[in-house]
Amino acid sequence: MLKHELRKKYKNLRTNFTASQISDLSMDLANHALQIPVWDFFYFHIFLSIEEINEIDTLPLITLLQGKDKNVVIPKTQGANTLENYLLTDSTPIKKNKWGIPEPVDGILIPENKIDVVFVPLLAFDLKGHRVGYGKGYYDTFLSNCREETVKVGLSLFGPEENAITDVHENDVQLDYCITPGKTYTF
């Protein structure tokens, strides 16, 4: 399937979830994160959820990371296809941007070359580790600027598309893992 078709399909599927279902699925997903071999790393990048569009609630995973004394890094959109990354602390001010994404206003900047693990938002993924995001290119640009060994972990409410995503671009960055509420996929 083409990316634009998958975006439409999975945005529609997400609208069927209740807040309670999102909460339960997000907790299951956080528990599955314990199975991937990333817990010796130090800097973990994770997005803050857009509750209004039924995204995965990343708070259980953030709580898990903080409970394991990991440095949690959150993104802020900057210009065309660029993310700045800030350390999440108790005093980090958060404000929604023009797309409704909760972001840090300011704080301690963390360079991309320090980030060990990135939890990647997505709408769909296939069995080859290709993902479909929202189509703005922020994460592909960001991931291409991270170290090659940075671990890329997709977070999905749904299992993989059985058929490959047909319009993969050479600049699309593949995932190393994708965690769903039911299973963790390795690529």
Automatic annotation (TrEMBL):
NCBIfam families: MTHFS_bact
GO molecular function, one term: 5-formyltetrahydrofolate cyclo-ligase activity
EC class: ligase
Keyword set, alphabetical order: ATP-binding, Ligase, Magnesium, Metal-binding, Nucleotide-binding
Cofactors required: Mg(2+)
Species annotation: Flagellimonas iocasae
Protein name: 5-formyltetrahydrofolate cyclo-ligase
InterPro entries for the chain: FTHF_cligase, FTHF_cligase-like_sf, NagB/RpiA_transferase-like
Family named by the database record: Belongs to the 5-formyltetrahydrofolate cyclo-ligase family.
Pfam families reported for this sequence: 5-FTHF_cyc-lig
Catalytic activity field: (6S)-5-formyl-5,6,7,8-tetrahydrofolate + ATP = (6R)-5,10-methenyltetrahydrofolate + ADP + phosphate
UniProt EC number: 6.3.3.2
Transmembrane portions of the chain: none
Superkingdom classification of source: Bacteria
